[in-house]
Amino acid sequence: MLRWIPIGPVGPNDPQEGRMYLFAQARDCDQLRDGVDGTTFKDIWRATGAVCYALRDNTAALWQEAAAALATIQQPPDGRCLELAVLAVARAAVEHHNAHPAAPVAVEAGSGEACPRRLGGLTVVDEDFVPVPGLSRPSGPRSGGTWVRLDGYYVRVSEVLLDGEPAGVETRSEGDYFPVYFRTPPANGKESITVSITDTLDAPGEAQFFYDDAAPTGGGTPSETGTAGPAPSETATAGPGAPAGPGSTDAP
């Protein structure tokens, strides 16, 4: 028995990879075949489509085609959890067939999630979006203007919330599945702020940023311009957050 790919989770507004994952979950072979061109890791989705047809029609030729497609694939980066999930199951399907070539591969529903979305922590970065060393916790001056990276896993961050409220802060990101950075507002008498996010699906987790005028930082004031790094966000920003680094903290 082959355990099929688990829930993404994937939302209806996710990019093409999310839709492809839904096609793979449903074993919609034709949609997998036709949707490859809009993806980043085309070879993985082509191979998944080949496995889908092999499972459906169970011919020797299709299983050979699926095995050949998988043989040339290099492992995707750790942050590409949707591709990692489908690749692992596609390989398992071919291995199962090779061990029992005379019988169709029986498939059961997957369990768990491939990519649980969450805010995992914060990392203070400088104006070039490089983590700032020497910080024991995410912190910056009370005047605001500190650039902070959202760590964890997310796809398309629609809002950064401070103390549970939409903050309207300046953000930077290169697009879907890329890290999101935001610029802290002035303290206005607060010692810290609690950061959370909204995504196309629920993205739980909170992390604290602390106001400390003695903390090293590369940030300026919120009114400054000319910041280097990722392009400004026009609407919603997105990213599979990077792992925690210097000046970071893990959310509970």
SSE map:
Layout: E1 2-3, H1 16-25, H2 29-34, H3 42-57, H4 60-71, H5 81-99, E2 107-108, E3 118-125, E4 139-140, E5 147-153, E6 159-162, E7 165-166, E8 171-172, E9 181-183, E10 192-198, E11 207-211, E12 248-250
Parallel strand pairs: 1-2, 4-11
Antiparallel strand pairs: 3-5, 3-12, 5-9, 6-7, 6-10, 8-9, 10-11
Helix pairs in contact: 3-4, 3-5, 4-5
Derived from helix and strand composition plus strand pairing, the structural class reads alpha+beta
CATH class of the largest domain: Mainly Beta
Helix content: 25-40%
Uncertain ranges: 219-252
The share of residues in extended strands comes to 15-25%
Question: From the 3D coordinates, which CATH architecture of the largest domain would you assign?
Answer: Sandwich
Give descriptors for this structure:
252 residues; Immunoglobulin-like; 5-stranded mixed beta sheet; elongated; disordered C terminus
What's this model, at a glance?
With 252 residues, the protein is an alpha+beta fold. Helix content is 25%, strand content 19%. Residues 219-252 have low confidence and may be disordered.
Summarize the structure in words.
- The structure is a single chain.
- With 252 residues, the protein is α+β, with helices and mostly antiparallel strands.
- The two termini are 37 Å apart.
- The protein has two domains: 2-108, no CATH class; 117-252, Immunoglobulins (Immunoglobulin-like), CATH 2.60.40.
- The strands form three sheets. Strands 8-9-5-3-12 form a five-stranded antiparallel β-sheet, with no helix packed on it.
- It has helices spanning 16-25, 29-34, 42-57, 60-71, 81-99, and strands at 2-3, 107-108, 118-125, 139-140, 147-153, 159-162, 165-166, 171-172, 181-183, 192-198, 207-211, 248-250.
- 40% of the residues are buried.
